[in-house]
Amino acid sequence: MAMQKKIPLRKCVATGEMLPKKDMIRVVRSKEGDMFVDLTGKKSGRGAYVSKSEDAIELARKKKVLDKQLEVKVPSEIYEELVHAVRREQLKS
Question: What integer pLDDT is reported at residue 1 of this predicted model?
């Protein structure tokens, strides 16, 4: 009997849903205070996960949940980069 591989789950800060890590995008704040979108999910720093949907990203922007989670003001460029990443992903599938 084959063992099933454990699928890591993460919680979306916008919707509160628990989803597989591969269905999420991570936003990271480094120790130096730099903000960036981490598509690999492996860069060091304080991270917060958002679902790969434009609705979840807009909800995060309206509620300012990324600001609260990362304890810093998230620039609008980060939200735009998230939307572009989601759209690129949709074009691939």
Answer: 60
pTM of the model: 0.89
Amino acid (1-letter code) at residue 89? E
How many residues in total does the chain contain? 93
* Sequence-separated (6 or more) residues with CB below 8 Å from residue 50: 12, 13, 14, 24, 25, 27, 56, 57, 60, 66, 82
Residue 7 has pLDDT above 80, yes or no: yes
**What's the rounded mean pLDDT across residues 45-61?**
96
**C-alpha closest to that of 82 among 35, 50, 44:** 50
Residue 57 has, within 13 A of its CA and on its CB side, a CA count of 20
Q: Which helix (DSSP H) or strand (DSSP E) does residue 36 occupy?
A: strand 35-38
Look at residue 64 and give its three-state secondary structure: coil
Residues forming beta bridges with residue 35, ordered by sequence position: 29
Comparing 9 with 2, the larger pLDDT belongs to 9
